[in-house]
TrEMBL record:
Keywords: Hydrolase, Serine esterase, Signal. GO terms for molecular function: carboxylic ester hydrolase activity. Residues 1-28 form the signal peptide. SUPFAM superfamilies: alpha/beta-Hydrolases (SSF53474). InterPro entries: AB_hydrolase_fold, GCE-like_dom. Residues 230-385 form the 4-O-methyl-glucuronoyl methylesterase-like domain. It comes from the Bacteria. This is Acetylxylan esterase. It holds the Pfam family GCE_fung.
Amino acid sequence: MNALLRKIGLKVPGLPLVLLLCAWSAVGQNAPTLVAGIPVNYDEAKVPAYTLPDPLVLQNGKKVESAQTWHQKRRPEILSLFESEQFGKTPERKKARFPVFEKGTLVFNDKAIRKQITIYFTEDTAHYKADLLLYLPAQAEKPAPVLLQIGFSPNSLAVNDPDIRKGLMWNREGKQVPDSTGRRFGSFDVEKFIVNGIGVATIYYGAIEPDFPQGIKYGIRGHYLKPGTTYPAPDEWGTISAWAWGLSHVMDYLETDQQVDSEKVALYGVSRLGKTVLWAGAQDQRFGMVIASCSGEGGAALSRRQYGETIKHMTDSTRYFYQFSGNRAHYGDAPESSPVDGHMLISLIAPRPLLLLTGDTDNWSDPKGEFAAAVAAGPVYKLLGKKGLETTVWPAAGKPILHDLGYYMHAGGHGTLPADFDIILDFIRMHFMKK
């Protein structure tokens, strides 16, 4: 495996020069050399030699040679390692309630049916809840596939639809404010998917767990924190696990909606929410597809490359330590000592379709490291009768690889660009709408 990975970088097509779309994406005069006082490497020549743990070798040293051994032994081993050493262990889900407060309103010139549902994560109906916004093709003759987005914006800001129920959101100061005062991170083009027979659902991540260090006081993790326990604890769950746990509750609802094909739900998220959808899909195999955009360190990228953002950057006490288990910080100075890496997280999605999206100037997220991780996960897909990337040649921007394991790098920086949704649409149709 590592011999194959060493080939990557020897055959790299020329990449176009583009305008930078994100401050963290730059490599040049304006690129930070220190983040939180920790050096940043943007030089391929300084990437250390590394050896990846083999996802197809059991902890007892025996080779995994069958799908049965993968599913019954090796996959549970890897999942347990990620629970303990990276994301933290989530509590068991109790039977959720999800009242539908809008049962079906025709919208977008009668092309779509809009539903709005409240997901209650506990028996407490005053707290620990989130609204799910769902659009389904109005003319569908059978249950529809659904693209489920976990987003940074409340539902009322995620879609250009004035009749979405308003609510509260968390601001940068850690206060709850009306969502009308929040920032819109673009408007999701629902109709692009609806006219192709695909539903769209979205949920606001901050309604599950606030995204700041003190958020545990207000979110679902605080509700489940055992008396006498303080965070960070060794395998206590971080916010990424909390957001993933919330998404499984959404799936609980989608399985009850007779207009949804719950076996064809594609889970989509960007940046830290790209990490989230990978972890949600790893834990909950009911999700039929995962689409992770710019998931970077802690997601699809290889930590051992120590390129762009690193474990040490993420787990610094001034930054994003709260997104992970306490154990994750142990590997900040020695990523090579971690028993897991990005390729193993990717392998947990197999044999289901997985699409990795990234940008050629998003060096903070290490697009080359995401590609290398996908290459290293390929043998798992092959063992399970599916098709990995089938190449060690890092593609130029704009050149998609769309097999069961897919990779697409746009020309630009961090985040999903409008044109990326054409790739997402092609990938969903390829796997969910075969004739």
